[in-house]
Amino acid sequence: MTEIKDKSVETFLGELASKQATPGGGSAAAVMGAQAAALVSMVCNLTLGKPKYAAVEADMQALLAESEALRVTLIGMIKADVDVFDKLMACYGLPKASDEEKAQRSAQIQWVLREATEVPLACAKACAKAVELSRVAAEKGNLGVISDAGVAVMAAYAGLKSAALNVHINAASLKDREFAEAKLAELQAIMQNADTEAEAIYQIVQGKL
Amino acid sequence: MTEIKDKSVETFLGELASKQATPGGGSAAAVMGAQAAALVSMVCNLTLGKPKYAAVEADMQALLAESEALRVTLIGMIKADVDVFDKLMACYGLPKASDEEKAQRSAQIQWVLREATEVPLACAKACAKAVELSRVAAEKGNLGVISDAGVAVMAAYAGLKSAALNVHINAASLKDREFAEAKLAELQAIMQNADTEAEAIYQIVQGKL
Fold first, then answer.
1. What residues make up the domain containing B112?
2. Cβ B147–A165 below 8 Å, yes or no?
3. Does residue A51 lie within any of the structural domains?
4. ipTM confidence score
5. Per-residue pLDDT averaged across A6-30, rounded?
6. Residue A1 confidence (pLDDT)
7. Which of A9, A143, B7, B63 lies 20 to 30 Å (CA to CA) from residue B35?
């Protein structure tokens, strides 16, 4: 089957809109995060090598290495979301006629739910990283493309808030509350101040227009 | 030349990251808006025909018609952004040796800047519409996919804030201040309460998880 990353933008959007279960919001979150990372890279690529920005050359090289690695990571997460969702659906489809079947089905669902909590949590972390990288782009990037740093931070923030919803849903279904609470605490730590930080970076950009 | 919508998601992200001038933040904003519209459609498509949601069948049909039209509009805006940017770059490349050439070049730049202000303004309006549609999806959609309404509102809001940056940049370069101020006033009206509205819709979704 063709991976989403290899489908056209229009096909992806069509499948997102359709009644098929995947791709859904989890993949959309990863795409937004990947757009954020890509825009940070764009700001770097249009700042590097310009005499006017020679002072930030090393910063931009380091930033570009991070944003490009993050873009690869987030592109991988588009598929990871689909895969874990499909796995979860397969578990829900398991037979549940006997008590033994019910117990086996429930155990498998619980096992996959752990992964279904960790996948969006990893996406949330990657998006939070994209917010962080957007700040450097906004502070040090070429003023001619500084608005792209502003788009980057909004895309990253939207990806973060979106992935957070999927962590919440799946954590809520987990019977292993210790595991669930640990994951929710990790999410909480990432979300802490994310809205004020995203808005602050956006304001940096707006102040430079 | 292949339109962005016809390129793979990965190719789009690669071009976004590259040093080529387009696609940039304007196209990314339109893609985010289109993702929002698509996710509203997804919620509709997974609510329609379900006996449990028979009471909102007509609402969901009407919402789906709007979200699908909006998705088409926003997909068109991916290209519109590239086109007007390319036109603007072509104007900046016009000869400016004589005073006459300078005057002609300046006049053409100013003419295209009007369009370059209107294109992201139209994108901002479409994204604001996507926020509005997300509210209906969040309030009335199938609880099993309600998180997708939450992702929709975040994508729509990010698209709106992103498009707004491009309106500001281009309006700032306009010599026709009456036109510029009128466009900025339109933007202002759209942005009014957008952040509290987006957060309120997100909270509706979170309250239902």
1. 21-208
2. yes
3. yes
4. 0.97
5. 97
6. 81
7. A143
